[in-house]
Input
Amino acid sequence: MKKQAKFGIGIGIIVVSLACLAWLGYGESKTYYHTIAELQSLKGAELSHRMRVGGTVAAGSIRRFTGRVDFVLEGEGKSLPVSYVGSDPLPDTFVDKSQALVEGRPTDGRFVAEVVQAKCASKYEAAPGGTVATSSTATK
Amino acid sequence: MDVFGSFALILAFICAVYAFGGGIAAIITRHPLLVKSTRQAGIATCCLIFIATFSLEYLFFSDNFSAAYVVAHSNRALATFYKVAALWAGQEGSLLFWSFLLSIYVFSVLIAYRKKNGELMPYVGVILAGVQIFFLTLNNFVASPFKALAVPGAHGAMDLVARADGNGLTPLLQYPEMVIHPPNLYSGYTGFTIPFAFALAALLARYPGEKWIHLTRKWTMIAWCFQTAGILLGAHWAYAVLGWGGYWGWDPVENASLLPWLTGTAFLHSVMMQEKRGMMKVWNVWLVFSTFILCILGTFLTRSGVVSSVHAFAQSSIGSWFVGFLVLIFTVCLVAYLKNRDYLQSENQLDAIVSRESSFLFNNLILLVSCIAVLSGTLFPVLSEAVSGSKINVGAPFFNKVNIPIGLFLLFLTGVGPLLAWRKTSVESLKRNFAWPLMIGLLAGAVIFALGYREIYSLVCFSLCFFVTATIVMEFYRGAKVIRVRSSASYLTSAIELTMRNTRRYGGYIVHMGMVLVFIGLAGAAFNQNVQKEMQPGSSIELGKYTLVLQSFDSKPEANYTGLRLNVEVFVDHKPLMMLYPERRIFETNGETGTMVAIYSTLREDLYVVYAGQSPDTKLPVIHAYLNPLVKWIWFGGVIVVFGTLVALLPNRRAVLVLSGAKQPAPEPLVHGMTPSATYREGHD
Output
């Protein structure tokens, strides 16, 4: 029994310490996902969470300033003004009408984003329908 | 050609169905005609898939813009190189490419073993046919690459059209690296089907002994090698092309490729336990099942959009097919296991905590923990939505916090494991083997600390890297010394001879050495620096020991893009070193922009310069420069890992012992007390 106990303790220590680290890491990085519509109905503590919101970049809304890029994100008929304040350059795929995911916090009616991801000119999406510039118009 | 191709695909489906159904009948009845015909049907399935794939490629090369897939991903101006790659640029074609690569493996296995292992092969054939049927179903009925281009016409019917030219390949994919990364990664994913099939077959057939492990060892190593290369190529592409300064973002699609790598690595190691001591049989069977399931899960995550990532936002119905297949595979594995688990009884028990068995056990444990952590983190939005209704993401801090200690512990085991003895290691053996490496490791750590680098994880990592390097060098040194006694050749020649006599072991050490180099490269990330500034001609930035001066900028129209180029001169200590040309490209076909990063890479660090964009008020270029220490070691280490795997795949060179006359003294005992024999056994002790 002794060596079983030794192994058990060894394994237990490893698993418990990694679980603690996982818990810490989770707390540091957890980010809620909300739609634009949901954002307007959030109250109280939920508003201060770090969150991600997805939508489509409204055509013509991208305005670049020093240290900040403003644009409007649209989804499900609602729109959300966003200010990107991160230091990294915006991805090359971030253009009018691209699908974008912003990460940050809502502040005073705007959304302040620290990270912006725009859809990779990707291979695997289903055709959103009919635009010549994107995928085929074949029957799906 | 498209009719020809789709016809070949449907025929392939029919052959696969026969190989599967007839194969089951062959197992039950053992009728030799059934056995033979189902094997041939399996081979025919592969050949038909080859034909279908070549047909699709032909459509690309002949600029056939009546095929919808060709229109979507190619145009006349596209370079030939990229027309080949356009095959896997979209959903349908990449699924066909998956079937294609899988068929190469299936074809090879069916042909190689057509006259051997008669007890096992019928089962293997059925399982492989089953997997192929799934992908052929997708290829034929769900996502056909041979669809003709059509638009809605009058009266609700679809009218066939042909375009004059296509939409062209997405600019982000028009890089050589993006062309080699998918074939490597897919060859890894599909390759793991082979050990899976053999493991399941052995379980179902209750095939005696560890023979299935011997048979599949080479296939597993090949698949693992491709998977490793695929992951590193993807990381390098992200680094050199995307321009965000990093190589790994814990994005769901990246994680999807890592998960089977983790269980595959665990499997590769713990089969040694089964071969030598008949232990860990249940573990091994579930490790290889999990590896295969994770491969399918990986492609499901990438294609279905179930988890949002930079790679895939849109939802696609193909996801439900994969979920169904995953449930089916898991059920089959579980039932096979439950029915046959007495066949998997261990022959031996763990004897001591300081033994090679225990190091393999811990190796398995932490790789599995890492796998579970990465899987949970990746699927967290799905899980949290199911449980609490809100989608929660976890990011890099979570993954790094868990995986960095795991990586360091793995590094430690890499040094310690090979030098522990089976069953139990004595204290004298520990002292003899570990005294020097331990001292070297601690000394290295102390020196690095003294030089001012205080980041704790990096310190531990570097110490361990030196420790492991010392253990590996010691192993080669000791073995080479023994060979030198007989042959009086140089140490280098003896080391090569040593390696060739036991390729699996010493090839494995080379792979470990490559991993050590990769870890050195990863440790450098703690010391990354970067700076961003708006520049005009003549202005400069300082970063580390470099000074960057913007000399000028220009714009150059090319075949399918306009290049906005910055001419940056790099100085070190006021002496001009070189010119760098970071660039932004604007593509005509769809207005997208691409970044060409300019990298000056040395062993010490990478100077990584990006043309980040134009300042909105002044329209002046903004440069983002990064100093990334030790990154080159990652790529270099990757090459060594692949080299080591290739060495390990070579057959052993048999040693010839020349016996001499009675006057000679008896030969020295060889490594670790082995006595000389006419041939060297594979393995250790």
The radius of gyration of chain B is 28 Å. Chain B touches chain A through 80 residues (CB under 8 Å). Residues 304 and 319 of chain B are 5 Å apart (CA to CA). The mean pLDDT of chain B is 87.
